[in-house]
UniProtKB/TrEMBL annotation:
Disordered, as annotated region: 138-180
UniProt-listed Pfam families: DUF6093
InterPro entries membership: DUF6093
Superkingdom of this protein's organism: Bacteria
Protein name per its UniProtKB record: Phage associated protein
Classification of source organism: Bacteria, Bacillati, Actinomycetota, Actinomycetes, Bifidobacteriales
Amino acid sequence: MVSAVTSVLDRARRRAEQLMCDTVRIERMTGRVLVDAETGLSTPESTTVYEGPAKLQTYGGVAQQSSASATGDTSNLGGVVPVWTLRLDLPISVAGARSGDIAVVTGSRDTALAGARLRLINLQSEKTYATARRWNVQQIPDDDSSEESPPAMPVLRTRWTDEPDNSPSVLDVTQGGVQP
C-alpha cells in the first residue's frame, strides 16, 4: 500500500513541477550593507536561497466586507469586495525558503510578471502528501513608476578625530562622492 501511495505521489509531484513555467530567484537579506567606495552609497546585501522553476497563481475571489483602507478611505465601508490572494508554488525539494525572503520573477510566459518582486508570507503546504511548496506571497510595489531608477539614498558616516573631547566629524555623502 505504501509503495502505491509513493508511486502516485511521485507522479503528482512531477506533474505539479511540469506546470512551473516561471523562473524565480529567492533572496534573503543578510543584514549587512555593502558601501560603494567611490560614491559612498549603500546597498543591502542578500544571498540567493533558491533559483529555478516556480508557478505564480491567484486564488480566492472570496467576498469580504471592506473596512477603511490603509489611507483611511472609507468610501466603500461595509461594502462587499472580492479579495484575491497570490501564491507562489515551488518544487517540493525546495526546503530552504523562509517567511520574509524575497522572490524575484526572472522569467515568465506572462511578460507582465517578469521582474515582479514578492515577499514570502507563509508556507501553506505543510502536509504529508504535498506535491509542491505553496507560499502565500505579497507583491512588493515598484519603488518608482517611471522608467528611470530612483536615485540611491546617500549615507552619512561618522569619523572619530583626535580632538581632545573625542567629538565626531561628520562626512557629508552626496551623489558626486564624499565631501569632508
